[in-house]
Design brief:
heterodimer, A: 326 residues, mainly alpha, 13 helices, 1% strand, B: 390 residues, globular
Chain lengths: 326, 390
Amino acid sequence: MNEPLYKTLHAEGLISDDSLNRITEREKQPPLFSVHWEIKTLLYLGVLLLTTGLGLLVYENIDTIGHQFVLLFIALICAGSFAYCFKLKLPFTTEKVKSPNVSFDYILLLACTSFVIFVGYLQFEYKVFGTNYGLATLIPMLVLFFVAYYFDHLGILNMAIANLAIWMGVSVTPKRLLLNSDFDSETIIYTYLVLGIILILGAYATQHFNFKKHFKFSYQHYGVHVTFISLLAGYFHYYNSAIAALWILGAFALAFLIYRDARNNKSYYFTLLVILYSYVAASSLIVRLFTFGDNEGAVALLFMYFIASAIGLIFLLINMNKKFKA
Amino acid sequence: MIIYNKTWLANLRLQNTLEKDLYAGCITKDEFSAIKEKYPVDFYTPTLFARVGLFILTCIVMLFVYGLIALMVSSSNMFSSPGFPFFLGLISYAGLEFMVGGNNHYRSGVDDALLFISGCLFFTALFMLFDANNNNPTYIDLTAAAFLISLLLTIRFADMLMSAACCIAFFAWVFFFWTKVIPSGTATVPFIMILASAGSYWLLSTFRGKIQFINYQNCLTVGLIICLVTLYASGNYYIIQTLGDKLNGTSGKAVPFGTIFWAWTIILPFVYFGLGIKRKDAILLRTGLLLIAAAALTFRNYYHILPIDTTLTIIGVVILGIAYGVMKYLETPKYGFTYAETDEANLMDNLKVESLIIAETFSTAPTPPADGGVKFGGGDFGGGGSSSTF
């Protein structure tokens, strides 16, 4: 289709004869149309709808005889999917393992989700773990972590991390983090802080021991967000006491550590996060400084500070992007 | 006309084509860098994350610049005049021209933010202008204004968001014009909307094939998608009934020619899908898939055949079955279709978006049951968020 383009490039001496041959060879074959993403979306939707439907079905029919059949059905799905995955999986290594085929990932997802529904149901109806709710969430979490590592599945690792947070009594998924969280309680701030530090240590360990290195991103992604948010929340919670200084220092120390790590790994995403979070931290200090007095001039100065600092950061980001690209 | 250097745009297209050849293994790395040298692109286009960061920071800068200006003029009563937002919009637009024209920013986040801000401010100014004149801005004027502004900005910057706004404003204008100005327009408006969107689709797809519009490929793609969706929505039974009730002040009135619209609602998505497969057109194919879901939702809204849980389970099984069937069928590529991944490096893989989505949709916070007799609410377990996903 673009034959003249390649002919021109060849005439200009930019493409060798071999390459031109390869290209004309390829252009002769009819182009393949890939439905890869459509299939993946369908698989994802199918698993999502099926598990949602089953989860609802069990609870809707809880008082009738039918629910035991539904339960049996869920157990069968779970067992069948796990059996399939155990049969097909490639041998375990500490490096990244490719999944044997496209549907493997989704069948594993189906297995894990139906397992979580199953355990949840057992607890709800038969009180298997009694009133020990910690245990009821601990076991699915451990299973999810095991499955994530054993079959090398990033999505399930993320589910496991979310379950870890649930086990600790909080939540990490963005929607709930923003909507439901009440950062005005000390317990919650400390819980998030501990969770964040555990996740960041997890990310560090993943790289240090060279064990499933590609899992580092997930740990670090949740860890960095949760720790920064809890440190800033702590600062504002203790705004008027001296401990506030400790929290803000913690934020800057974390920023320094993550920045060093991001620079070593050439990760622009984490550099950006560090810059934005420390900008919030620094700006809250500046605002505090300016609002000591109460006059209009200070407000105008504050506005100018924001304009100048944000422009400065824009240039910083542009420069850094060039460095990272190089 | 378009503000970007046209040679660079052409070179960018060339580089993108050859990058695919590089991944497909048709050309060597040295050849690719030689071509890059010969056909340079001097735009400043950072990576996706930098673009997001720059977008946020630019918004902060503009917010405080406007705050400072507002502080300066706060004693006068300029705020109520439409000139004020227009003036602010001009500042942002001047910044945009400077960054794009002077500093060669191209999809850098800075230009995205400035374009978005100035578009919104110009629209606010026009809104206030109409409001001040007759105290009752008509939607016809407003949508016409929005259409003009976004059209001009699209022509100048070839921005996808602006072109989407432009198409939506155009269809909104047709809708309001027909229902407010033309007598008995409410009854005929579905047919007019169908004509308008089909006509626009035809026009835009002709444009898409023309060499003069080669710099606007992405905008035209966005436009085509919106035309297809509007074409479907104009004949969708639920939309016609709801809008008809709104316009006539009735409730639940049956739609005249109901059978035609029901046929339209159910059949059209499959027509899109079929045409998409026949022409190997990803736009038609994906829009068709989405609209099949919309058709199913519309149908369920009127006819409750099965309770929601059974429906979800059955649909889930059917979808998995279909996916499995297609994969089996395409094990070896047939009729030019394959389900293998293309060679193009996918940016999304960097972000690991898929795993984040799984975490968001498949895990939910627990609600320890307060007393054993109460049933769990919608999706408190694994299947999470059922009410919002379906």
